[in-house]
Design goal:
2 copies of one chain form a homodimer. Chain A is α+β, with helices and mostly antiparallel strands. The first copy, chain A, is built from 7 helices and 12 strands. Chain A has a 5-stranded antiparallel sheet. Chain A has a 4-stranded antiparallel sheet with strand order 3-8-5-6. A 3-stranded antiparallel sheet of chain A has the order 10-12-11. The radius of gyration of chain A is 19 Å and the shape is globular. Chain A binds a DNA duplex through helix 6.
Chain lengths: ~240, ~240
Amino acid sequence: MSVRTRCSSCSVREISLCGSVSNQAAKDLARVAHQRRVPAGQVIYGGHQKAASFSIIITGVVKLINAKPDGRHQIVGLQFPSDFLGRPYAGPTSLLAEAATDLNVCCFSGSAFENLMRDHPDIERVLLRRTLESLDAAREWMFMLGRKTAQERVASLLLSIAEHMLSPAPVRSKARQSFEFDLPLSRTEMADCLGLRLETVSRQIANLKQRGIIATGRTRALELRDIVALRKLSESPAD
Amino acid sequence: MSVRTRCSSCSVREISLCGSVSNQAAKDLARVAHQRRVPAGQVIYGGHQKAASFSIIITGVVKLINAKPDGRHQIVGLQFPSDFLGRPYAGPTSLLAEAATDLNVCCFSGSAFENLMRDHPDIERVLLRRTLESLDAAREWMFMLGRKTAQERVASLLLSIAEHMLSPAPVRSKARQSFEFDLPLSRTEMADCLGLRLETVSRQIANLKQRGIIATGRTRALELRDIVALRKLSESPAD
DNA sequence: CGGCGCTTTGATGGGCCTCAACGTGGGTGG
DNA sequence: CCACCCACGTTGAGGCCCATCAAAGCGCCG
């Protein structure tokens, strides 16, 4: 299940935490790192489990879910390759991390990683930067949940996913006007991201398809045919 | 305008950043700190200003606003006494910090503080902890924006404000069943927090008043008469 | 074929938005 | 002192967007 990591061949090394810390810190991290595969649907960490572990996503997408006892829940974050996964200094929380797709992750045991954090301030510095960026992203997301229409929300989500799925290739690149990828989320999951119902998401996607702004293949395949129009729809309330 | 700080008499020292770092770091911070008064409505930092400064709130409340060119905006955070204010490693952002009430803040110049961060890893560690807590709070808020009804939202906001305004006295304390304080926000601002319209907020407050769960004085005075009922309403969709 | 999970599409209703009018309190200047 | 104003809050009436309920289509697998 776990194998020794070969960092030199890691596809996200350059842009992940490991690539942003000192050489010594990177070496120490590598010593306690193991690669793991995680099937879609598996919970990676939950509010109750004490022994948290930390990891870096190599391939795949993770949902962060805020779930309440009464059954309502809201996806409050998506994590993509190179993103750091885990909650240092964790207190009791209702947050749940679940694999949205099959994953490859680079995994660190909780205690080992926390010791390394203490020894290497630059790890903490990088985590601080990334956490601040997550906070910015969360606040952008909050605007969407509070103020955007259903159409804007769906357009925003598709763009946001596209930007992460296709990175480091920039979505704005003039070289191509069209982009294809597989959605990592079901309609239900998209609705859970957006504060909508799955039927509403489905209708909005149908609408975008009808306008020729996107196209969908059989299952989760998606093609963005008019990024400019999609970006416009993601920011203005009406057509 | 600015006066030398007397940390020994600071009312939030114990629970603020200064109180959580090493003695040496606290001394270095004190050397570059100045107290300032900020009138309600003043912008403390905005997306465009390069030279950010950092501060700790001593008294008063600050709104963090995500404002878009088309005029829509959403309050994405409230900051209370002892909270840290500022965005290290800031990039371009549409975020705006504005005084919701008159403030007393303890202010650090941007460059001085960033130098101190480099010299004292424990400052960064404390910032990381606080940023992670802000992220948790933001994700709780996201659930509210995505999934709660208007009534739940208003109840949640009143409770959240009460918990911060009355701290460190715990709201759950059995000693008192009723709590009074002045709301730091107008109806419009509350609506901006909750992703609602001000009329909706007004109606929900009227409803709570009618049930005897809260009482309002003439202006912004608020009394929570039945915390248990309010907490219940903040978590369950219907009555 | 038939069952299952996911998606799509339709019909209906409700919760909140929108627009509008009125009430209220605090400040100002005659 | 009080008329006036203005910002803010309250209350009412109507409509729209999205939730809800329902049913059918589609791809997959045994």
